[in-house]
Amino acid sequence: MTIPFRYRRLGYVALNVTDLARSTTFYRDLVGLDVSDATEQRVALRCARDHHAVLLYPAKAPGLKRIGFELESSADLAKARTYLSEQGYAIEDVSADELKDLRTVAALRFRLPDSGLCIEYFVQMMHMATPFEARLTRIERLGHVVINTSSFDTMLGAFRDQLGFKVSDFVPGFAAFLRAWPNPLHHSLAVLTGPDHHLNHINFMVSDIDDIGRAMNRMKAANVEIVFGPGRHQPSESIFLYFLDPDGMTVEYSFGMECFPEDGAREARLLEPAPKTLDTWGSVPTPAFGKIGQIEQGIEA
Ligand SMILES: [Fe+2]
User: Which of 51, 90, 101, 195 has its Cβ near the most Cβ atoms within 10 Å?
Assistant: First the structure.
């Protein structure tokens, strides 16, 4: 369906971590992000000019705090606010202090039905004075976030039918790969069926296939658990490697992804729910893959 606002991109992911210093070290020294600034309340890490692609918050349990999508303009944000209210979503305003802290001009938040997953729409994140310099890995961007849900149809319905995401590929009853139209990337978000609602993984796209191989050896040397890959996904054709962060949350590097035109894009393919759909090279995920990361719930009214 057509919605009255346009996405620019997946902007950032906010993670809850149980040891802020330990996770900051991991995402800086092993994943290769740069710290933009750090306080006791949160650490902002970047992989581009933008102030943050990842926010780490100290918490009792590891998990997904929220996902931030950038819209194209302030006018889009205003239209989104009206539209979401009409769709029955309760809008959570972001305070002036928090906007300032997050180096963002304007934002709103809302929660999905059933899962309680918090989505933020924002416009304009501060560009840092110096470019991101890849020390370890040529990270192009935060690529996507994947969620497991026990309400697959409800979550897919919200993203596709209310929030304007387009389905790029579909594995019946198991997975939907969603692009934040008109952003061209095959998926900025994916929804997987699961026993409950939790984070499956976050992804960083790299610009050189050598970064996948180097990362595998770097992680092994640091005793970081590799939980899937290296391999190649059939849906996005990406070459991938998955590993665990210090809390056991799954992180992915991937190389390559199909891009879609704004108009005239191909229809979503219906993919067979078979292991080779996940990896055409034949590797299988370990039991720890995509297990840790509860979805933070809002304060009950
Ligand atoms: Fe992925």
Answer: 51
Query: Could you tell me the distance, in angstroms and rounded to a whole number, from the CA of residue 188 to the centre of ligand 1?
Result: 9
Rg of the chain over CA atoms, in angstroms?
18
Measured in Å, residue 177 CA sits from the centre of ligand 1 at 10
User: What is the Å distance from ligand 1's center to 159 Cα?
Assistant: 18
Range of the domain at 163: 139-295
pTM of the model: 0.96
The domain that holds 258 is classified in CATH as: 3.10.180.10
Q: Which residues, other chains included, contact 78 with Cβ-Cβ below 8 Å and sequence gap of 6+?
A: none
Residues 88 and 186 in one domain: no
Which residue, 194, 289, 286, is CA-closest to 251? 289
For residue 192, report the distance from its CA to the centre of ligand 1, in Å: 11
Q: Is residue 134 part of a domain?
A: no
pLDDT in tens, 174-230: 999 999 999 999 999 999 999 999 999 999 999 999 999 999 999 999 999 999 999
How many angstroms is it from 290 CA to the middle of ligand 1? 10
